[in-house]
Amino acid sequence: xxxxxxxxxxxxxxxxxxxxxxxxxxxxxxxxxxxxxxxxxxxxxxxxxxxxxxxxxxxxxxxxxxxxxxxxxxxxxxxxxxxxxxxxxxxxxxxxxxxxxxxxxxxxxxxxxxxxxxxxxxxxxxxxxxxxxxxxxxxxxxxxxxxxxxxxxxxxxxxxxxxxxxxxxxxxxxx
Length: 175
Known about the structure:
Blueprint: H1 10-19, E1 23-33, H2 36-51, E2 56-63, E3 67-69, E4 72-83, H3 86-96, E5 100-105, H4 113-137, H5 141-174
Antiparallel strand pairs: 1-4, 1-5, 2-4, 3-4
Helix pairs in contact: 3-4
């Protein structure tokens, strides 16, 4: 008989993940719409996407009953999320844009320079992609081509600067 993979409890998974550099956070989301059902469905869909995201190891969410404010229904959701790393958390936050974030565990983290650079590069890439999408929608064809050419140049310069930094670091280490 083949051995079945041992199932871990949420507590065991959380402890192991935190020990390996993970984080347990509470993400808060809000939604607004023309009816309670609309708002409830949007939040349910969001929580389902988050639960199925490979960056989230475990999630547990609760959705508050929508309330009417003026002519709009509003609600919010609180979602506990367990992630493997600070970088995964940053990417989830960029992807889902919660209105608030609370780090539940651990109380302190340490990042290496490499980890910090990875997070910053992910944030920079996300920002550039978002800006590109936003600008492409409002530009005529000539402006789009100019913008794409500038992005290409920016990418080349970024690669060149990274290589120059690596070379300078290697030279300093060799001295």
